[in-house]
């Protein structure tokens, strides 16, 4: 039986290369993973075009990050959308520009993989998906965490294998220290209109970990979830967000936090607790897990029917997930397979799930007092 060749997709990369953003950082990470030679690749990826704010900056991006690729370089995003040889547009601009970038690409009939968060609020996400539905093109939010094999195996272990019994609680925190007052005024991290704050950059991952840990079928019963949240602001920018999630049907709780006031734990990214044990997820930061450890239930030594105050945890079993690059290729592969299959939505991150997470963040901002100018747009 002949082996089927993996599909080939041609990418158009939209790069932000101005003073508001580190020069194409997220786009550079994405394309560096695309050009890795992998024996397990589900698709063949071609960097067909790069669009930047100028030809000079675009050429510099290609020279630094695109390996042996020889893409067309354009000094305007619109030229990428007009390129007939581009199949899928990857959008790596700051949050505030995602909506218009997506709409412009959709209008030209291009499939889109757009960095998270897809938009600044749930209303704008609905507008993007409505446009994609009307035009009949594929659009997906690039929540790369959900595409990782580690996440798939972790959820199987929790919900199919029941390795830690019945889940009842989960925690996740994401912290990156930023000296907000001393950043240049041009930095997007100081401008709420550009999505400044910890929530959209970091908190979205903490929320995603809670959803993955606490919901057997993510998004199947959105009315089941309630949220109580608080936020702290510094120099007009949200710097810390915390939320308690509760599921009425199961009583499960999630504690999710994010901050730009201090760096988070560099190893323990999330903890899931069940009636028969717990799981801790490890890695450099919550968007990039590399392993998880399954621990048996905590015990202590009984003395006359009472614990002696010394809590003992048995030795855990660690599961490692080494891979090439940073891990963006997992979402690139899945996007390519979806695209060539003629789908409009991601098989991993559905439109409804993107909207739901945006609604959770909208509610947290509403309770915490963070408003963006986009919330007021008609």
TrEMBL record:
Location of the GFO/IDH/MocA-like oxidoreductase domain: 159-280
Lineage top rank: taxon: Eukaryota
Keyword rRNA-binding found: no
Molecular functions (GO terms): D-xylose 1-dehydrogenase (NADP+) activity; nucleotide binding
Reactions that this protein is recorded to catalyse: D-xylose + NADP(+) = D-xylono-1,5-lactone + NADPH + H(+)
The Gfo/Idh/MocA-like oxidoreductase N-terminal domain, residue ranges: 24-140
Family that this chain belongs to: Belongs to the Gfo/Idh/MocA family.
Protein name per UniProt: D-xylose 1-dehydrogenase (NADP(+), D-xylono-1,5-lactone-forming)
Record organism: Clonostachys solani
Source taxonomy: Eukaryota, Fungi, Dikarya, Ascomycota, Pezizomycotina
